[in-house]
Amino acid sequence: MKQRKMNGYLQAGLLLTGLLAALILLGFFWTPYDPSAMSGGEKFLGPSLHHLMGTDKFGRDIFSRVLQGAGTTFTIALCTVAIGAVCGTAIGALTGYFGGLADEVLMRLNDALTAFPSILLALVVISILGPGKKTNVILALGLVFIPSFARVTRTAFAALRDVNYVKSARLMGASSGRILLVHILPNTMQVLLPAITIGFNNAVLAEASMSFLGIGVTPPDASLGYMLSEAQSMFVSAPWYAIGTGLTIVLLVFSVGLIGEGLQRRDKGVA
Amino acid sequence: MKYAAKRIAMLLVTMVIVSLLAFVAFDLISGDPATAMLGTEATAEKVAALREELGLNRPLLVRYGEWLAGFFTGDLGTSYNYSQPVWELIAPKVLVTLCLSVLSFLLITAVSIPMGLWSVRLDGRSGPLWRVLDGFRTAFNQLCMAVPPFFTGILLTYLFSTVLRWFVHGQFPSLTEDFGGAVRYLFFAAVTLAIPRIAMTVRMLRSTILGEMQRDYVRTAISRGNDRGGVLRGHVLKNSLVPVVTFLAQTMAEIVAGSIVVEQVFAIPGLGRMLVASISNRDYPVVQAIVVILAFWVVLAGTVADIINQRIDPRLRLGGGA
Predict the structure, then answer these.
(1) ipTM over cut 0.85
(2) Among A2, B76, B144, B229, whose Cα sits 20 to 30 Å from the Cα of A256?
(3) Given B256, B258, B287, which is nearest A127 (Cβ)?
(4) B90-280 CATH, one of 1.10.3720.10, 3.30.160.60, 3.40.640.10, 1.10.10.60
(5) Could you tell me where the beta strands, DSSP code E, fall in chain A?
(6) Which of A16, A209, A217, A224 to probe the B interface (max B CBs under 10 A)?
(7) pLDDT digits (tens, 9 = 90+) for A204-262
(8) Taking CB atoms and an 8 Å cutoff, what residues of chain A touch B154?
């Protein structure tokens, strides 16, 4: 029996992610200032106790904007990973467990798709769906993340197809659906959970990149990527805008990355 | 050689499929270019005349064939937005993006291979200090991968353009007229692209080589009195090459994708910037062409890696090869 202890990476990652998630959740209901309220007298203020991350050229409170933007980015990343993980696992489970021609064809297609960087695929899909809408961004990224999840889960399901506990479940007359969901799925968590953390981070970065390029989320929806592109143009007079926004992305990706690292180390049995 | 020929044939087939998909997809969504080009002046007769002129009345496959041939003859249609031939618009940009990618690739290999080897050499020491250092290394690695290139890009632009004035942001020198200046400008963008990839490559090198060090033949070699460094240089490195080459091909693909964002940050007039602008403007002939060129790049990198790997490892010649 493998020991399943917490390790430093996992603890630090969970703690940081928890804190960030709590802040973001708070941001949905309450922000220190109205994120879009302009104030002529408070332009380009540096960080202070009143404005934690300062203000921008319209006198808007950057901390409030970052909270709101992080909320959008977080939501999009979660939805994207949910689409990718659920559809990908379903495809991976069916093809891995049943095999056959469909498996062969789908996996060839999968190999071809995963050879392309996700941001490139997402750009193609978004240009087909139409740029600038939140739902389209989620759909485009979600679609793009399906193949990688399918590949990971397919390998796991194919490996567990003929192990003894699955065979015995089959002998006892369990239906295929039950075997897949109750017997095999929980045992694929070891590969699925790190894949989800990596997928989440890729989604955050991909969404931020697309919004940065102006074809992801566009105003009035705020997103960290769009804010960063706005911040670049006023870097000289308000460097705290770019730094605050950028560090928020870094922190989010870093903390989830730590969870992934911790999970992988736990499963390999290294401290 | 037979293998290489087969692999190149596969590359061509893949490209035909990719380009067909791109052509059909953009043909379906783009609606009627004739109506779009005429705008408010569109009357039924004018639209019909323009459709005839643009050759839109012919079957899809015929138009696809002509378009595909255009990659060799240089006739890829006309941009809706600039009313200029697509080829003329993108040809100079291909060169810029190519320079950026190659520069970044060279940086990644030049920095990450020594760093990876160094990190392997440090491995295996015990004691609390090394454990702490190992933790720092992992955390630093995660941090490098967490910083999005556009954020690094903004910071580097500020430091090297606004403060140090080593290059002027937004004034990209022409590649043909001032090659040195252009390379200097591209260098900072290449660094931006390289940082997260260097972190990943070092990590990958480390785990590949350490994994290889666990193999029986290494244990045997060491038990026969060879030293660790000698075994590493003489045997392990050669055996670790195949996954590394594959990873570097992926790196090339990621650089191409990353260049789209980095060109925007550094205001470099490359393919990526053109792609983004064309997506926003719904300039589909340009999008189509750029997508196929970038896809070709990615597939080419994979093909070259496969051919190299098959040269390195004779076992691959028996298995999936010719």
Answers:
(1) no
(2) A2
(3) B287
(4) 1.10.3720.10
(5) none
(6) A209
(7) 988 888 888 888 787 777 788 888 888 888 887 778 888 888 888 999 999 998 898 88
(8) 228, 231-232, 235, 242, 246
